[in-house]
Amino acid sequence: MTQMEYAKPRSFKELDGIFESAKGPLRFIAGGTNVVPDLRAGTISPRLLVDLSGLKEMAYIREVKGEIAIGALSTISDILASRVICDKAPLLFQAARHLGSPLTRNRATIGGNLADASPAADTAPSLLAMGAMVHTRRRRGKERTIPLDRFFLGPNKTILAKDEIITRITFAKPKDPSRGRYLKLGLRNAMTISVASLAVSLEPEGSSFGGARIGLGAVAPTPVRAYLVEKKLASGAMDPKNIEACAQLITKEISPISDIRASADYRKRVVAVLFQRAIQAAVNGGTP
Ligand SMILES: Cc1cc2nc3c(=O)[nH]c(=O)nc-3n(C[C@H](O)[C@H](O)[C@H](O)COP(=O)(O)OP(=O)(O)OC[C@H]3O[C@@H](n4cnc5c(N)ncnc54)[C@H](O)[C@@H]3O)c2cc1C
């Protein structure tokens, strides 16, 4: 059995040095809530484990010039404790509240939640609905910015290169934060993986839906935006007929699988219901 080595860089410079001298497949670890169970189960066996938790410059949540920036090492508990997120991006707050238990949330990072690329990742639908961007860094300081809707390639697959880390996630401060809703259905009410999840962010314009964005989880190989539904919502009136037609359309825009949690058909039905509840709550206020 090959022995696994461990490195914990304290700066990007140290991280670059690790990349230069690495001799085999490496794996990043942040909070470890996915990586540690995978190591224990033997489903991954990296030659080198690179612990990102020493890169303290990646743990912050800020609002700068109308944009909210979240360092990749921010934990889900940090997000829940953040005044900025609670007041200005409650859609992400709602999602964070649904992720795991307090113990898991204390370790789980937002960067890890996205990089793990589970179709059911709880932060993804809300971040998609807010038009989030993923900022990354490769060796020698090469950076790029990837729209979140182009970041996921498949279950547990992302666009990230082997030597590329997420440094932060950004999105424009929602114009009307009270118009966002995240709904998750699991097999129980708490500490559960999504059967289906949906985030809606509305920016009503007069009597129409205007800038509506919808993110979905656990109903396709990756978290996805419902672009066809967004277009139809925006082109119709803000009335029950349009909402009903969009609820029908959303079942056609998704491609869920049947698994131990639910059948594909059940997921389609559930998403239509979640969609209607979320839209109505976002329009009228209150909890669905
Ligand atoms: C008991 C339990 C309950 C859970 N419940 C939920 C739930 O309800 N909803 C949910 O969405 N998830 C859930 N999870 C999954 C997990 O907690 C989250 O996905 C978490 O956000 C992962 O973050 P982490 O920092 O622990 O990632 P890690 O385990 O450290 O890493 C996960 C993956 O991301 C990579 N990675 C981490 N950080 C970076 C980075 N900055 N740049 C590039 N790659 C990186 C790692 O290499 C690895 O592939 C649960 C896990 C457990 C153990």
In a nutshell, what does this entry contain?
The chain is of the alpha+beta class and 288 residues long. It has helices at residues 12-21, 35-41, 76-81, 83-88, 90-98, 102-107, 110-115, 123-129, 227-235, 240-253, 264-284, and strands at residues 5-7, 26-29, 48-51, 61-64, 67-71, 133-137, 143-147, 152-154, 157-158, 165-172, 180-185, 196-201, 213-217, 224-225.
Structure commentary:
By secondary structure, this protein is of the alpha+beta class. The protein has three domains: 50 residues, Uridine Diphospho-n-acetylenolpyruvylglucosamine Reductase, domain 2, CATH 3.30.43; 117 residues, Uridine Diphospho-n-acetylenolpyruvylglucosamine Reductase, domain 3 (2-Layer Sandwich), CATH 3.30.465; 108 residues, CO dehydrogenase flavoprotein, C-terminal domain (Enolase-like, domain 1, 2-Layer Sandwich). Helix content is 35%, strand content 22%. The protein is built from eleven helices and 14 strands. The strands form four sheets. The chain has a five-stranded antiparallel sheet. A four-stranded antiparallel sheet has the order 11-12-13-14, with helices on both faces. Strand 4 and strand 5 form a beta hairpin. Helix 5 packs antiparallel against helix 8, helix 9 runs antiparallel to helix 10 and helix 10 runs antiparallel to helix 11. It is globular. The mean pLDDT is 95. Bound molecules: flavin-adenine dinucleotide.
Which characteristics define this entry?
14 strands; four-stranded antiparallel beta sheet; five-stranded antiparallel beta sheet; Uridine Diphospho-n-acetylenolpyruvylglucosamine Reductase, domain 2; globular; alpha+beta; Uridine Diphospho-n-acetylenolpyruvylglucosamine Reductase, domain 3; binds flavin-adenine dinucleotide; 288 residues; Enolase-like, domain 1
